[in-house]
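Per reviewer request, we include the raw input and output of the structure prediction for the construct analysed in the revised manuscript.
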Amino acid sequence: MRAAVQHETGQDKLEVLDDIEAVGFGPGKVKIRIRATGLCHSDLSAMNGVLPQPAPFVPGHEGAGEILDVGDGVTGLDRGDRVLMCWLPACGSCPSCRRGQTHLCLAGFTNAGTPNFRRTGAEPSDVFGFAGTGTFAEEVVVAANCAVPIPDDVPYEIAALIGCGVTTGLGAALNTAQVTAASSVAVIGCGGVGISVIQGARACGAAQIIAVDPVPARREAALRFGATEAVAPEEFADAKARITAGEGFDYVFEVVGKSATARTAYEMTRRGGTLCVVGAGAMDDTFQVNMFELFFDEKRILPSLYGGADVLRSYERAIALWRAGRIDLEGLITHRVRLAEINDALDQMRSGTALRTCIEL
């Protein structure tokens, strides 16, 4: 089968190979034929080494498709079922799961150290899947709890987005920050996840939603998805002064994953307000606040991982909001490519011209 492979960390191009096979099928596992997968910025972060990932590997973690085979002991799933990929499944028995914080379960991360694929050519070798998945491939084998059934009316490309970016962005607003009605919100970074934060804030009834991004096309998109105003980073301070009389915003979301933008977000948050960090950053990039401002300003600093709540419930809610017309998921897909064009998709994301690119397999 075909898959897009990153041979070494730091390479900016993927190689589409046809001598890859999905491995590991057996009890408790399912084999999935990927039909659509989204390109998320986390894939780029794994490629350039910001997020740790053994190489060689197949990127991709936002996927949906149909089950080809079911291993012994798997219940609730059958061949032919339409599913989306959950890259962080809950085990149900660890301390985090027992506390109801299933999105903090670490069991899924153990999959990342086990090869998902194998090259079958003259020199066979193991190949990992990003985040234990690797959806830039025609087929993948994963634990059964990574496969979540989807209703028949949800297209594969929509389901793929719900599998990560949409759930992350909506959840940051609805679950982690719990945006209140009539509040003021600023979102720094308006790619696919940032746009989903904007849609979540709008669903919560925020009165003012300011989108901040250096790319004009993304600022224009943010307005279509519910932002009341969109500004370039250098205009952000003026927007704060004009809109909040200098006090700062009730909620500021950092969706870039950089300490510099997190610091800006902190400074743009009003005293007693909420800074929500959504972007995935590097381990050696340190965000700093001094002890006096931490005490005196009483700003809440809330990281948000995968939407900050049970992902299965979050999937259901995203589908319900989409069906009701409260959020626009089709509009997030600005580009569509085939697997052979994956490097074009990478360039589109790096340049900021794409919100989400759907890779159809």
